[in-house]
Amino acid sequence: MKRALAIHEKSYGADHPSVAIDLNNLAQLLQATNRLSEAEPLVWRALAIDEKSYGPGHPKVAIRLNNLAALLRATNRLSEAEPLVWRALAIDEKSYGRDHPSVAIDLGTLAALLQATNRFSEAEPLVRRALTIDEKSYGPDHPRVAFLLNNLAVLLEATNRLSEAEPLRRRLLQILAEFGRRTGHEHPRFRAATDSYAGLLAAMGLSEDETLARLLSAILVLSRN
Fold first, then answer.
1. Full residue range of the structural domain in which residue 32 is found
2. In this predicted model, what pLDDT tens digit does every residue of 180-212 receive, in sequence order?
3. Burial class (CB in 10 A: 0-12, 13-18, 19+), 163
């Protein structure tokens, strides 16, 4: 990747969009190997190039903002990450409309930041809005919807609203079970979803037999339809 970066810098100049792509790719590799301090200046530079190339309100800039926010969050700099995601959200809403899947991703990212700072009441409407968008965009049984059901359930559990979280975890498990039946492959998150639902039921005071019955009911209900 460093070689590609050097070639493009020499061929196109240091501020070309292709250079921004190379910088981003190299930064992603460095992040994956936990070399965050090396990655950060590359992401900042990629952001500056795209702002100059496309303008500050372009969707490509929103992508760079989200990438930078993810890096800052990984270094526990949540207060620095949050305004970047708010800005990305505003860009994507203006570029694509309020009900676009990219907006849902921004909403989920922002909600996760708010949850990480215990601002649950601010995070909840964002997760619910993201869920509504993805249900409309992908359909109610899409794995992306399952992902947001999990996020909302986690939030409700964190605020001790277990009875509200239960139908979400049940529906999440049903979606992933149906994915396995439809594709012939177990979804990577199926077992974790099963464990999380079982843990929730136990926290609600259900016995082992009652918990097992609920799990089997959730998993098998779609196969009978």
1. 1-54
2. 999 999 999 999 999 999 999 999 999 999 999
3. exposed
